[in-house]
Each structure stands twice: as C-alpha cells, then as structure tokens.
Automatic annotation (TrEMBL):
Species, as recorded: Szabonella alba
ABC transmembrane type-1 domain sequence ranges: 104-293
Residue ranges of domain ABC transporter in the record: 338-589
PANTHER family, per database record: DIPEPTIDE TRANSPORT ATP-BINDING PROTEIN DPPD (PTHR43297:SF2), OLIGOPEPTIDE TRANSPORT ATP-BINDING PROTEIN APPD (PTHR43297)
Protein name per Swiss-Prot or TrEMBL: Dipeptide/oligopeptide/nickel ABC transporter permease/ATP-binding protein
Keyword Hydrolase: no
Listed GO biological process terms: peptide transport; transmembrane transport
Compartments where located: Cell inner membrane; Cell membrane
TM stretches of this protein: 45-65, 108-131, 143-164, 221-248, 274-293
Protein keywords: ATP-binding, Cell membrane, Membrane, Nucleotide-binding, Transmembrane, Transmembrane helix, Transport
Gene3D superfamilies: MetI-like, P-loop containing nucleotide triphosphate hydrolases
Family: Belongs to the binding-protein-dependent transport system permease family.
GO CC terms, sorted: plasma membrane
Any GO molecular function: ATP hydrolysis activity
C-alpha cells in the first residue's frame, strides 16, 4: 500500500537528484600553521632557537670540542679563560669548554630519557585511569597523590640511593619523579576528549577501546603532552643536575653539567669560572625548554522513495493492543531491523533510578522511517541511545523490556558481540557534525577507520570505497577531499561525511538524533533528502529523532509522539498529522511553525503548562495537568491511559474518540 501524501505541505522541496555540489575549499596544511604560531611568539622563537642550538652542540660535540675532554694536564690546572682554553681548565687541567660541550650529550640525554620514562609510564596510566574509571581510577590517583607529596629531589634521591649511582639510574629516577604529572594531565585531557561526540561515534562504529584510544584519544592529547614534555624537560634536567651535584649522578670522569657543578664547589671562591659556565649552560637550557613549552602551551591549550510495504510499517502499542500486534510481529521478527518491547530505561541518579523511558514498544521495518517527536526531556534521545547500545555506561541502563536489532536481543549480548552489532548493523548520526569528527585526523583517515573496523580490506580497497562513499553522499572531488581535515568543510558537508561513515558498513538501521538541527533550513532539507535517497538504495530502517514536525511530515513514514517517557500516539505520519487523536499531539502539531503555516493558522498556540518533571509525574495520565480535554474528569487521574487503536492510529487517551477525523 502506498503511503498517502503528507497532509502538511513541506516548506521547501529538494530532491536527492538536485542536490547542489559541495563548494570547493582550498586545503591548508595545519602542521605548518602550528609551527608558524610558535614562531610568531618571541618566547617561541627564542625557545626554539635555543633548543636547536643545544641540539646542534649535543649532536656535533666531538667536532665542536677544541680539546680531548678527558685529557688531563697537571701543568695547566685551574687556568682562567684564555684563547687556548675558552672557558679555562679544571682542577685536573681538562679543557672546560670541551667538557661542557661533551657534557651536553649526557645532560640533555638524561633530560630526554627522564621525560621518556615519565611519558611511557605516566600517559598509559592516566589514559587507563580515565577510560576505566571506578576503582582503577581511584587507586591510580591515590598512588599519584602519594608520589606528589614528596619533593622531586628527595624522591629522586631515594630512588638512586636504592638503585645505585649511575647515569641509567638517574634517568629512571628523574623519570619516575615526573610520572604523577604526566598521569594526572593525561587523565584530565583524556576525560575531556572522551566526552567528545566523535568518540561516541567511533564506539558506535564498533571500534575496540584500544583502537579508540590509539586513533582518537592519543592524537588529541598529543599537543598538550608535547607541551608538558617540554616544560618537564627543564625540571628533569635540573633534578638530574641536582643528583649530579650531590655526587649521585653521572660518575667521573664523564662530563655532565650537574656533576661538573658539584666538582667546582671547592673552587667557587678562587676559580668561579668553573661553576659559571656549567651553571650558565644548565640554566639557559632549562630556560630554553621552558620558553618553548610556554609557546606550545599557547598553541595547544584549549583555554588559550521509500520502500512502500504496508504491514511493514512501524507500530507501537500499549499493553492492550500489544498482544495482537506481537503475534504479527513474531512472524516477521527476524526481518525487523529494530524492535523494542515494553522498553524501560532508567538513569542512575543520587536519588535512585529515574525511569525516563517507560514502556515503549515499537518496530521499524526495512526501508521505513519512524520519527520520534516530543518536547525536550520526553525521552527521545534516551530511547535512541538504548537502541544504539550507547547508553552511558554506569549511568543509565535498560530497566525492563527488550531491544532487538537485526534479530539480536541486545541485553543478551556480551561486550564483543555488542561491538560487532554496532559495526555490522547500526549506523548512528548525531546532531553536531562539527564535534562528531576528530579534528586532528583527515576525512580519509576517519572514513577509512569506519570501513576498516572489523574488516580485512586492503589499503587500496579502503581508499576506493571511501571515494565511493563520498560520491554517494554527493561530495564532489572525493579524492582530494580525503586528505582534508574537518575544519576545511562546511557544516552540511561535515554532516554528509558523518552519514558516509555511518553507512560505511552497510547497516540495517540508521539512528539519527536531530541530524539537521545545527544546520540551516536549505541544508536540512538536503541532508534529509540524502538520507531518504540512501534509504531507497540500501533498504535501511531509519529512526529519526527530531523536534521539527515539518521535516517529519516530509521525510518520515511513521511517527511516534513521546510524552514523559511514553509513546502517547503513533501511526502513519499523514494520518497522525491530519487527525491527531491525542490532545498533546494536537497541541504539538498546531504549535509547530511549519505545520501551522501549512494549515493556514495565523498565530501559534503554545502548549499550555510546563513540560512534566519526569521524577514527579501525576497519577493517571501524565498529560492531565496540561490537558484541555481532561477538564477534571476522574478517569484521567485514576488510570494511566493505554495505547490503543483509534481510527488509523494508536492513541493513549481515555477520550481519544472525542476528536473527530
Ligand atoms: N545523565 C542523566 N542523568 C539523569 N537524568 C538524565 C540524564 N540525561 C537525561 N536525563 C533526563 O532524562 C529525560 C529524558 O532526556 P532525553 O535527553 O532522552 O530527552 P529528549 O526528549 O531527547 O530531550 P531533547 O529533545 O532536549 O534532547 C530528561 O528528563 C532528562 O533530564
């Protein structure tokens, strides 16, 4: 049976065939722009120049040194600076300049080694702590607090005292001292990155936790960790020199700035040049890395046609209607991409579980679009997330009923099976395309990841499929676009890319939560026309959560109206909008600008009263306090109205028959 034309005329008609091509945008390589940002700051320029200066000294020390740094001369001890010995000689007659230049390798090597040790231990600890949360997070952070309670040098001294004085042990000790700072920072930036929608998108694609961390978390926190490394390099260098000064660092005769300072102690009054040059090199190197770290901080710190099959339509039922419908449903259960039965979802709040989805039964067949509409807070997104298997872990749970996707009941699946289900059967498109894409990865990388997850495609196949996907979503010049970054695309194009990623694994169901609300009206129509076009080609079921009844009228087959966690009216869009039987649907329809305009209404009547507080619903019908039809009737206060067939749709109102068709 053909779906009848929607009663509400759409404001704008855009068909998939007339989609305008996306505009050309010149790519800009972001890595160079970061370098430019660093060099634009005086501290960045000076810091980088000094760091390069030290790197050159350390690398080319054997060629820069004017004398053998180990050669002793007892006839030339403690000589002041001269043209032969630029920085003078030490107590054994060795050339100080050559020893400082040679010592640059050891000193900087200890700094680099120490930061590496801290990075390799601290970053995984911090990321793990943020990712796993709970006890692991608690124990790790308490251990870090204990380590932080000791002054750096005391902690390093204790480690070297236990392990013995040697360059390797100094590296380990100074590295260990910096582990808490890395762990804390990595944890904090990982937590904020994990809250980004593109992480959720990745999880919805079925990516494993390791992959999410490696592909999305680490690249995003890399900038901040690089800044931290530079800043910590300076303090590591100073701690290592402190150990050297105390005789616990690099052992003689090897030159190292801290050790040299320690050796010069006895001559500080008589031959100050010994301490001056070593101290100067040490201080300036710490300053250089600090300046560079500050410049890096200012760059990276965030604060700086539808398949027409009747009988295959969506349906929803309350307790009474459900029995008959379920018998039909059972026959076709394996074919339905999405089905929920008496689904309840609760958030775990401080005051106990708060049920925000309260007994929703729905079914979406292949090739059909079911739109869920309702005021803010009615539970639409929570319902979608429950179907997407993306309820926030530990904070929300299915508290009753069931969700079946592609014939698999999700509550019975283990973690690996859920990941497979997400990858193979579910595509998700969220509202904010801008934040649903990882800003530090190219579009090619991100589409490639969606294709690669759980498959064994070769790089060439991934590339050709990525190009085909971009063509599918009407993005021109796809080969060039693959190398571009999200910021080089407009909002509408980003949303097309998100759709391409969601479709990468040819899902049976596409779940779209306000996919166009961040876009302007023309683009909204284009995106929904695109989704409809994709649906025609692939026969997917679509669940669309939206506030926009005009879009529902134009692009959905069926609609479910949600109020306070329940479906209060459902049926084919044309029927429900032509003759709403529930007073809430009636108010919702008449208060929608596009719908009201199409119906010739001049003013927009607001829905009376306040949206319900889902934790304190009245007895009986939840809509009762706002309902004009109720008018104090006792039945409305006594019994929760069940969803039952009234006319062409199902309605949860005791007095639904009072509205004529
Ligand atoms: N993490 C949470 N903890 C507790 N309650 C929550 C949480 N997230 C949402 N809720 C509550 O659950 C109810 C349903 O929220 P949901 O986001 O599903 O509604 P919605 O209809 O999608 O709203 P919107 O259209 O504004 O997105 C609301 O009352 C909301 O306050």
């Amino acid at each position: 049976m053909r779906r009848s034309e929607p009663a509400i005329a759409p404001q704008m008609q855009v068909t998939a065939g007339t989609l305008p091509q996306a505009p050309e945008i010149a790519p800009a390589p972001p890595r160079w722009s970061q370098l430019r940002q660093i060099l634009r700051q005086p501290k960045g320029m000076i810091g980088l120049a000094l760091v390069l200066f030290y790197a050159v000294i350390a690398l080319f020390a054997p060629w820069i040194a004017t004398h053998d740094p180990y050669a002793q001369s007892f006839i030339a001890t403690l000589q002041p600076p001269s043209s032969t010995h630029w920085f003078g000689t030490d107590e054994l007659g060795r050339d100080v300049f050559s020893r400082i230049v040679t010592g640059a390798r050891t000193s900087l090597g200890i700094g680099i080694g120490g930061v590496l040790v801290a990075f390799v231990i601290g970053v995984p600890l911090g990321v793990l702590s943020a990712w796993r949360g709970g006890k692991i997070d608690f124990l790790t952070m308490r251990a870090v607090d204990v380590m932080l309670s000791f002054p750096d040098i005391v902690f390093a001294l204790a480690v070297v005292a236990v392990l013995g004085a040697s360059t390797q042990n100094v590296i380990f000790a100074v590295g260990l001292v910096s582990v808490p700072v890395f762990a804390r920072t990595a944890r904090a930036v990982t937590l904020s990155t994990l809250a980004e929608p593109y992480i959720e998108g990745s999880v919805s694609l079925g990516c494993s936790p390791t992959r999410v961390v490696l592909r999305h978390v680490l690249p995003n926190i890399a900038g901040i960790l690089l800044t931290l490394s530079s800043l910590l390099f300076a303090s590591t260098l100073l701690t290592a020199s402190g150990l050297g000064f105390l005789g616990l660092g690099t052992q003689p005769p090897n030159p190292e700035w801290g050790t040299m300072l320690g050796e010069s102690r006895s001559y500080i009054r008589t031959h100050p040049h010994l301490a001056t040059f070593a101290g100067l090199f040490l201080a300036v190197s710490a300053l250089a890395f600090n300046l560079l770290g500050e410049a890096l901080r200012s760059v990276y710190d965030p604060s700086a046609p539808k398949v027409q099959k009747r009988g295959a339509g969506a349906w929803m039922n309350g307790a009474r209607g459900i029995a008959q419908r379920l018998s039909d449903a059972d026959a076709a259960a394996s074919a339905a991409p999405v089905e929920t039965r008496n689904l309840h979802v609760a958030y775990l709040t401080e005051d106990g579980p708060l049920e925000v989805v309260r007994g929703v039964s729905l079914r979406i067949e292949a090739g059909r679009t079911l739109a869920i509409v309702g005021e803010s807070g009615s539970g639409k997104s929570t319902l979608l997330r429950a179907i997407a298997t993306l309820l926030p872990q530990g904070r929300a749970a299915i508290s009753g009923g069931s969700v079946t996707v592609g014939g698999q009941q999700v509550e019975r699946l283990n973690t690996r099976q859920i990941r497979e289900l997400r990858r193979q059967k579910i595509g998700v498109v969220f509202q904010d395309a801008a934040s649903a894409l990882n800003p530090v990865l190219t579009i090619g990388d991100q589409i490639g990841e969606a294709l690669r997850t759980g498959s064994s495609l070769s790089p060439d196949e991934i590339r050709s499929r990525s190009i085909a996907l971009l063509e599918d979503v009407n993005i021109s010049d796809p080969e060039k676009r693959l190398a571009m970054y999200p910021h080089q695309f407009s909002g509408g194009m980003k949303q097309r890319i998100i759709i391409a990623m969601a479709l990468a694994q040819d899902p049976q169901v596409l779940l779209a939560d306000e996919p166009t609300s961040a876009l302007d009206v023309t683009i909204q129509q284009q995106i929904l026309a695109l989704l409809r076009d994709m649906q025609r080609k692939r026969g997917m079921a679509i669940l669309l959560v939206t506030h926009d009844l005009g879009l529902v009228a134009r692009y959905a087959d069926d609609v479910g109206v949600m109020y306070a966690g329940r479906i209060v009216e459902a049926g084919e869009v044309a029927e429900v909008f032509r003759a709403p039987r529930h007073p809430y649907t009636l108010s919702l329809r008449d208060s929608a600008p596009s719908v009201a305009a199409a119906r010739g209404l001049r003013s927009l009547p607001a829905i009376p009263g306040e949206p319900p507080n889902i934790g304190k619903l009245p007895d009986g019908c939840a809509f009762r306090p706002r309902c004009g039809r109720c008018d104090g009737r006792s039945l409305c206060a006594e019994a929760v109205p069940e969803l039952r067939p009234v006319g062409a749709q199902t309605t949860a109102c005791h007095f639904a028959e009072e509205t004529g068709a």
